[in-house]
Every structure is written in structure tokens, then in C-alpha cells.
From TrEMBL:
Its EC number is 3.1.3.-. It comes from Bifidobacterium fermentum. One of its GO terms (biological process) is regulation of pentose-phosphate shunt. This is Histidine phosphatase family protein. SUPFAM superfamilies: Phosphoglycerate mutase-like (SSF53254). GO terms for molecular function: fructose-2,6-bisphosphate 2-phosphatase activity. GO terms for cellular component: cytosol. Keywords: Hydrolase. The lineage of its organism: Bacteria, Bacillati, Actinomycetota, Actinomycetes, Bifidobacteriales. It is an enzyme of class 3 (hydrolase).
Amino acid sequence: MILHLHLVRHGQTYFNRYNRLQGWSNSPLTQSGYEDAHKAGRTLKDVAFAAAFCSDTTRAEITAHTILEENTAQKEQPRLVRDMHFREQFYGYFEGQDMAAAWWAAGAPHGAGSYNAIVERFGLAATKDFLKEADPFHDAESDEEYWDRIEKGFSIIANHPQLHEDAHVLVISHGNTLLSIMHRFAPDGYDLSERPLNGSVTQLDFDTSQDIDDAVSIVSYNQ
């Protein structure tokens, strides 16, 4: 069964505005964040969604409801499924901290003092593993822990009883999660130094009959 997933990064929050790691913590949408959600809703208003999913954070839920309210493709919208498996990466001790300071703490012991430097020298997985190592409580998700949770999110979508061949699915996602998906599944040719914008749409085709590494095809990024 092929599903067409429309992944939308939630609207801007105050932590986004202040350049702080957000993860599992939650700050309110800014006025621009509400506008981001409405813009995404207008972009997707003609798509008939068979199902809709988001993380159990208010920033994701408000974005999802706004998009569904803008939708004109069908009279009755699907019930929104909220689940922790769609959350952003968990940053543990570094939740809410300034991003530059947090990534310096993670990368400096390895000779890479920023997020981009870690990615360039060690790969994206190292950003998660180095942050967990730097976390004095080691609560931050490792790369393995992160993907175990995210893959369960894909399984939740695959097993949704209302879905059928060629169904369109709305998923409200998060910045680092979208980057992680792109780094894992995107072919060459995408500029992944460009972070997904708040309210942007990334489209995937998801083949539920395949193992996860063969199941995801990127259609578009950060539109």
C-alpha cells in the first residue's frame, strides 16, 4: 500500500524565535506561528486527507487543527491522532537551552563546536549521540533511541484502519525530525544545510509493504 504523506513543520514558537532547543518541551506559537499554520492550510486546502497525525504537543496540535479547518476538499475531516511517537528529538538536560551553547557542549569535546560542524565531521547521528554523552543525566535520546521511536510512528500510520492505497495523510512534524528523515531517506541533490521552515511542507511516498529503509521515497522538501 502506497501512502502519500504531507509532513508539515509546526508554526513558529517563542523557543524557535529565541533560538532555543525545544524537543519535548513546549512553548506557545507566536503570531507568525499562527500565520505559518494558516499558510500551510491554504497550501493543502485541496488535499483530501484520509488521516491526520501529530505529536502530543500543543504547537503541533494547533498547527494540525488549523490546517484541517482550512481544508475544503471534503466536508468531514479525519480525527486527529496525537501520539508521542511523532514528537521532536528529546534533548534531555539541554531542553530549552540556547542552541549554540547546547551544540557547543555536545561537540566541543570532539573538536566540533557547532551543530553544522558535528554533521560535517561525524554525520547527523553523532549530533544525537554526542548530546546524550554531554547530558549529565544522559536523558537525551541517542540516535538508536530516537529512530526506534520514530519508526514506531511510521508503524502507527501504516496500521491505521482508515487508510487505503494512494491515501493522503497529514503529519505535523518538527524541524530536526524533518532533517533526520531527509538525511536518512533523501537521494543526492537536496541541500540539507537548509533547515525546513515553520509551516513548510515536505512530501513522502510511504510503501507500507516494505522494510522502513526501502519504504520511504522523498517527493519534495521544504515547500
